[in-house]
Amino acid sequence: MSHALDEIKIGGLGASRKRVEDNRFIRGKGNYTDDITLPGMLHMEILRSPLAHARIKSIDASKAWDIPGVHLVLTGEMMATRNLAWMPTLSYDTQAVLATDKVRFQGQEVACVIADDPYIAKDACEAIDVDYEPLPVIVNPRQAVAEDAPVIRDDKDSQRDNVIYDWEVGDKAGTDRAFEQADVISKLQLHYPRSHPSPIECCGSIADFNRATSKLTVYMTTQAPHIIRAAVALVAELPEHMIRIISPDIGGGFGNKVPVYPGYVCSILASILLERPVKWIEDKSGNLISTGFARDVYLDGEMALRRDGKILGVRIHTDADHGAFFSDAQPSKFKIGLMHSAFAAYDIPAAHLTARGTYSNKAPGGVAYRCSFRVTEAMFFQERMIQAAADDLGMDQAEFRRMNFVRDEDFPHRTPFGFLTDSGQYAKCLDVGLKAIGYEEFRREQAEARAKGRLLGLGISTMTEPLGAGNSREYDILGIKMFDSAELKVHMTGKAIVRTGARGQGQGHETTWAQIVSHELGIPADDVVVEEGDTDTAPFGMGTYASRSTPVAGAAVAMVSRKIRAKARKLAAHLLEVSEEDVEWELGRFYVRSAPDRGVTIQECAMAAYSNMPDGMEPGLENTAYYDPPNLTWPFAVYIVTVEVDPETGVWDVLKMVAVDDCGVRINPMIVEGQIMGGLTEAYAMANMQFITFDADGNCVGSNYMDYLLPSAWETPGFELHSEVVTPCPHHPIGAKGIGECAAVGGPAAFVNAVLDALSGTGVRNIDMPLLPDRVWEAITYRRDVSGAPPVRSDD
Ligand code: CDP
Predict the structure, then answer these.
(1) Which of 113, 119, 608, 706 lies deepest, with the highest CB count within 10 Å?
(2) What is the pLDDT of residues 6-25, one digit of tens each?
(3) Does residue 614 share a domain with residue 636?
(4) 151 domain residue, yes or no
(5) Residues 120-159 pLDDT 10s
(6) 663 lines ligand 1 (CB under 6 A)
(7) Atom of ligand 1 nearest to the CA of 509
(8) Are 558 and 546 within one domain?
(9) Does ligand 1 come within 6 angstroms of the Cβ of 509?
(10) Which residues does the annotation mark as catalytic?
């Protein structure tokens, strides 16, 4: 008779265990950077540029120095004397820490004041007198490449224009041939607007340099503490072993907390100079105008089609507006991130992508907001293009997708731009979604409603995302290979601590990593504590973004658990007095193959590791695993939305939304559903209401929560989630694929497609996000496309 533990009862794989971190979060007991107070701590505030492009003629900080309570005023000139006025970015560019020659975007950091409290520091910032000479402003790629465009990055000797890269991928000749053979060519142009990850907690740091020990400790809201440690070592030229980065609880990241920001560098220098802890907490407008914007890409593509619906080829051109500094964090091999994941789920013989990136007078952009390095733009264009092509062919949306999907038996499949996908059941996911939304019935209702002047629409979006960067052969950041790690220590009573190189920001790692240990070792999840975010204790890792935690760090947790189990087996053999080959494993227990009732629990093995190990065995039960994944994981999803659009006002309401996500094996189904709901909410917000842009003078429009809207429970629609389709990842140790970003990546196109479907027959091909009522109304009333792209001239 089996003595195996009941995996669900002990909180193993598949258990919808309540999130352990919520015990402190919902009681207001989280420990965020701003909750930390150190003895003798000073406060830093940043003076930002009001202008988007201007030469700095002079900075007079004398009045600020005179204010009682001010300890230090940092300017670019002072930073330059320490070689810190500029810093390297994660994309091999440079970024101003404090401006010296020019300001290049509104909100750029010009000076910092360190004072006894933040109010004195803020007042002192206002006492700094900066004399600016305004320069012409560039707010979009078209202006950036105009003949007479001012060179924004004239600080770089080699930079003669505003182009950052011109890049291509795919099969140009094959694609040209596909277009020659096409019966129909379908075209689409759109702008994926800037959006902001906008975590509730803004960025911040507390730098604490101790001269006596030469140790620098920095508490900061970072998603990638080890990368920050390396960056600080290189930029500040401090010895890496004397730097400790602690990332306490994080109030949301979504990609915003991956880059290195000037505030971090200034607080560190201030602490070194003053030999006191220096705290910098960014305010909301500072966060919204100066940190990690995402998207801002112009997408222009066409599809070669055979009359029967077969896609023969795709061409895409992208123009990405990166702002004043090219500071995305992305694998260095891929100039526009993983944009070439486009059409990965479709069987398309030929594709070609050209990509250009330009500077503008905007804050640095291109950060991956809940997305793997431009995958969101790729999936958005893909699903908008698919809908346009099906319409051009007069084909049914669902049928067109189904006939062009990669089939289950075609894996492993080489995607049009060269990735290797390994698993999925695309048509099945679509079928589940269509049934759940009541597809045929809705189409009938839609036709009847149209006859009465009501505009109903249905939008489908699918997404497959390359999650889990990387494998170290192909993925690196600044040359550092992308892998991850886990360390597991089992104490003598069988309780355990696991640490990883990832850093959760609300995703529930403290819950799910324990479940993986539980699955592998049979230690109840409640007996496993998870710790992340301290570079002095956690093994080296690349951090948490791009939904890479489960595919990489989660895999490392499984692998280190297996190492522990291998040693525990030797201990079990010793305790049972049989040879190792005669020992079998069932969840939580080793037993003698020939006498299954004779066994020892994993906890008994743990005790033996400290009290009764065989001769010659190293004591203790702990280990570390570094995991370099063989491939990315490829989750798949289908999102379907129905909407009703009011023709009088352009307001649209969601009638129903269904989501079918296949992320392989779900560690914690409840957490997975939470991730999907969060992603869909962000997708809805991007499609419906979030508007942050720049006027012709480079002023940021939407720099506060009155204008940049966060959806509350009141306006967010309900979502019906489906988990019927499970295609385990063939190479992940527990078959899991990433999920955190999927819904935010694939969701927006479903909403936009639904609204455009409601407008079908009017000739309107595109409305750029957000689909604000006035834009939709304009499209309906004037039967024309409506773009939300930033203005070209000041009178636009
Ligand atoms: O990297 P990040 O944590 O943002 O994303 P993720 O790896 O997709 O994981 C998000 C959360 O969902 C974590 O708590 C995961 O452990 C959990 N998850 C899961 O339970 N099952 C999966 N197949 C994937 C993720």
Answers:
(1) 113
(2) 999 999 999 999 999 999 99
(3) no
(4) no
(5) 999 999 999 999 999 999 999 999 999 999 999 999 999 9
(6) yes
(7) 14
(8) yes
(9) yes
(10) 223, 370-371, 741
